[in-house]
Amino acid sequence: MPQFKYTARNSAGKTIQGSMEAPVQRAVVDKLRGDRMIIMTINEVKGSDKSTESIFKRFNPFKGSVTSKDLVIFSRQMATLVSAGVPIVQGLTILSDQIESPVFKKTMTAIRSDIESGISIADAMRRHPRAFSELYVSMIKAGETGGVLDAILERLSSYLEGAEELKGKVKGAMVYPLVISGVAASVTIFLLVAVIPTFKTVFASFGGQLPFPTRILLMVSDFLKSQFMILMAIPVGIFFAVKHIYGTEKGRFWIDRRLIKLPVFGDLLKKVAVAKFTRTLGTLIKSGVPILQALDTVAKTSGNKVVEEAILNARESIREGEKIADPLKQSAIFPTMVIQMISVGEETGNLETMLNKIADFYDQEVDTAVKAMTSLIEPIIICVMGVVIGAIVICMFLPIFQMSSLIDKH
Hints:
3 domains; 18 helices; 3 strands; elongated; mainly alpha; Receptor-associated Protein; 3-stranded antiparallel sheet
């Protein structure tokens, strides 16, 4: 059974902290209210429920998720309802009836129940990290505090649309090369494992010695056929090994540092990181989130450990009364132009404006880099595929070209 930690104030005004086991959070709320306590915070202890059903739900690979499209639509509709003066709980009820995703509908129902129990919107959303990111929760909290929730929701919608567009550009650039590489690898393996062995008996009937390239090809074919399962298990093992290493702090930092140093792909990753950092930070500052909290949120949502470390260093620099530009410059990730524009924004008090201009510029840079990378990768893959398939065909036809001499020797 799940365990919940709570902080509440009793009728005497004394703050009490404790924990309680209950099937759902609402049961804890009802119990505390029955004891005439005012609930301040209540959170489920992660990993407290060890039941088989809970473990299955946690590790079920087929469970759904909340997509960016769901969040964009929800944010737009919720902004309209809030600006029209509709109460939050009533607005969530209206939107829950319209949501098609079962996972998102269940999440909305849980959030509505939490809000009804006296918890803020941001705290209610924070309990569903699979649906609402740290960035989303931070901006909602700023909107609640400043009384501009409808404006914040509109900004969130615009931000999510821009972030999804940026992600789509990068993914789109990788789809074609991956598909072509997969087809080329599949055709090559099929030829080596299924087709070439059938020619081996034919070549053996010729007698004599086969050409050296053909002998090499037959050796490769025999090796692949005999060790096929082992060779197929190697990439799977590498995938899980890399995934395990990437799951550690040091491993993720090491991999991320190597990725941004790659010749072409690394430059694209840097531009994506700059665009995401400036757009996110600019949106948070414009929404009224304090700079230290904004940098902490941006660091958590950066997606790259090297970038995250640079942002956290900038956060510590500001905490000590220094500027944000200096530690960003030392990280060697952010270009000189970005550092200079951030420095000018700090000095003039227009940091959010400068950040948005940088984000607009690097969105275009990412688009250009994606097109350049695609145009560069396509001919390389085609050439490699042509060389491999061509080499196999030539090796197979060499004995046929020398058939007459092999028959004479026989």
